[in-house]
Design goal:
The chain has 276 residues and is an alpha+beta fold. The protein contains 5 helices and 14 strands. A hairpin with a 4-residue loop joins strand 6 and strand 7.
């Protein structure tokens, strides 16, 4: 306290000057219409600029919450999209009586950890068994495939990225329906390989590659990427096709975990047929 009084005493001329200066400005503004109008206009402009900056800062820090809300809303909309249902009534001749049952569910999730520079890359999501997540569910974004759920805890799950040397996703070329498998050679995070496409198929750079429904994991038609380059080595009956993924694995943050409600039925039936 003593130091404060000493500081004020040593600088009392400065404080007195500031007080008198403020009083002078107040009297000037208060007794002159022109100066008062100018002060009010300047104060309004300053306050407006301050509020604008404040609102921009507030909106910026609210982006995460807004993204989470939008992701949840999109997941709900996807559940009701016609592509998430399958035809249940076999009487196809009666269109008006057609009945649909839901086949795919969508749950919004956020990436909390990931790798992209290893040979076997994984992602960790902030959703687990408490949120209905199970092993072997598909993980996608609005622009492409991400991977497949591997391990699940109560509140988190890990995902085998498409950038994993053991990843193998059934995919087809959209404009001709020829299908193969998406694999990764462990080198370039910006390119994956589409294999098993025969040499007689007509290919074009920029062709879209999408998922098939053969694995019972991914809905059919999810974008995998676009053909970046392809070549046919002499004596080889299959193309070497480079595909640029639709998903940017370096920046991906919000995803959807997709569940196939009919997966167990399909898998069990196929296993029974294989064992016969």
């Amino acid at each position: 306290m003593k130091n404060i009084f000493v500081f004020i005493w040593r600088n009392h001329f400065v404080f007195l000057f500031l007080i008198l200066q403020s009083l002078s400005v107040y009297l000037l503004i208060q007794n002159n219409n022109y100066q008062r109008a100018g002060f009010i206009n300047s104060a309004s402009a300053t306050a407006g600029n301050f509020l604008n900056v404040y609102n921009n800062i507030t909106e910026y820090f609210s982006l995460k919450k807004a993204n989470d809300i939008l992701a949840a809303e999109n997941a709900e909309l996807k559940k009701h999209h016609p592509s998430s249902f399958f035809r249940y009534d076999v009487q196809v001749f009666n269109v008006n009586d057609t009945v649909y049952r839901q086949q795919y569910t969508y749950r919004a999730a956020r990436v909390v950890n990931k790798t992209v520079n290893k040979r076997n890359n994984y992602l960790t999501l902030n959703r687990g068994s408490l949120h209905g997540i199970e092993r072997n569910m598909a993980v996608i974004t609005p622009v492409g495939v991400v991977g497949i759920v591997k391990d699940v805890s109560a509140n988190f799950c890990t995902v085998i990225s498409m950038l994993h040397v053991n990843s193998k996703i059934s995919a087809q070329i959209k404009n001709n329906n020829y299908f193969g498998s998406m694999v990764w050679n462990g080198n370039n995070a910006s390119l994956v390989n589409l294999v098993d496409i025969p040499s007689h198929v007509k290919l074009h750079k920029g062709d879209t590659v999408i998922t098939t429904s053969f694995s019972a994991i991914f809905p059919e038609g999810v974008v995998v990427g676009t053909i970046e380059d392809f070549e046919l080595e002499p004596g080889n009956n299959f193309y070497t096709i480079k595909v640029k993924p639709g998903t940017d694995f370096r920046s991906v943050s919000n995803v959807y975990v997709v569940g196939n409600l009919l997966k167990n039925e399909q898998v069990q039936l196929e296993e029974d047929s294989t064992n016969d």
